[in-house]
Amino acid sequence: MFGRTERPEPDAIEVIIGPRATFSGILRCDASIRIDGGVESGRIETSANVILTESARAECDITAKNVSIRGLFRGVLRAQRVELLSGSQVYGALHVGSFYMDDGVQMHAELDIQGARRQRTEAPARLESKTPIPVVEPGGETPSK
């Protein structure tokens, strides 16, 4: 039993939406969440993990450390790691640090893997050549100066 000052382990599943339950709204938690039922709209936010089982139907946005999907997901997902397991159906946008996908996954989503990517404000380095590149005219001749 947890006292008021004790916190659960981050991977301990504290919240379960059962197979006969549906939920709409904002769910915030600091422990892992397992969804066996339906999430009709809203957001799920946790610093731990989210697990969507084969019976899950989640139409919401999810922000979590790790997300494992075996059921249906429709929305925007932000996580350090996402696993799409066999039988899952995914629609929307995934913004992840790392990504794994089994065979047998149906995915119609934008995938943005943000691992070692540069910040968008940083301009790409330009190559400067000390030797001028000659201009070649059609026909293979270099124009005279």
Explain how this protein is built.
The structure is a single chain. With 145 residues, this protein is mainly beta. It has a domain at 13-113. It has no helices and 10 strands. The chain has strands spanning 13-17, 22-29, 32-35, 38-46, 49-52, 57-59, 61-69, 72-84, 89-101, 106-113. Strands 1, 2, 3, 4, 5, 6, 7, 8, 9 and 10 form a 10-stranded parallel sheet that branches. The radius of gyration is 24 Å and the shape is elongated. Mean pLDDT is 83; it is low at 117-123.
Q: Note the gap between the termini.
A: 87 Å
Radius of gyration, in angstroms, nearest whole number: 24 Å
Main β-sheet: number of strands, strand sense, barrel status?
10 strands, parallel
Give the topology string: H per helix, E per strand.
EEEEEEEEEE
How many DSSP H or I helices? 0
Structural class: mainly beta
Question: Could you tell me the number of beta strands?
Answer: 10
Q: How confident is the prediction overall: mean pLDDT?
A: 83
Helical proportion? under 10%
Low-confidence stretches: 117-123
Strand content: over 45%
Based on CA inertia axes, which overall geometry fits? elongated
Q: How would you sum up this structure in a few lines?
A:
This protein has 145 residues and is an all-beta fold. It has strands at residues 13-17, 22-29, 32-35, 38-46, 49-52, 57-59, 61-69, 72-84, 89-101, 106-113.
